Amino acid sequence: MKNNDILRRLRYALDISDVKMIEIFGKSNFNVNKDEIRNMLKKEDEEGFYNVNDRIMTLFLDGFVIFKRGDNPKKEEIKKEKKLTNNEILKKIKIALSLKTEDILELMELAESPISKSELGAVLQKKDHKNYKECGDKYIKKLLQGLTIKFRNN
Length: 154
What we know:
154 residues, globular
């Protein structure tokens, strides 16, 4: 899944305004304006599309964690060349929203894509763990769909 799609879906699911998006990016010392935010939310074929690379997505997610949970004095420096994986995206969303394993399982069920607790555990493991499983786009898509159903369903 492309970072722009994830950003767009997360913003919609949690009803995050442009002002809050700017504030979230600011928490990770990345300054953007409303026009840049709007361009990040555009689709690839739209004029003015702004590609959200892995570094910018990492800055947003780190800012989102700080926005929701407060600053961590022991946080590690963001690596500029780091490839962002779906596993890391899932973990950062989990941390930011203070989701427990049961909460994620519930969200996946809401999105009609139930997974087992052990399957989720494997996706949340560190890469060098023997039970590590790569998180596919389906997990992220369904998690965001579950968030949308939970927070936007009237």
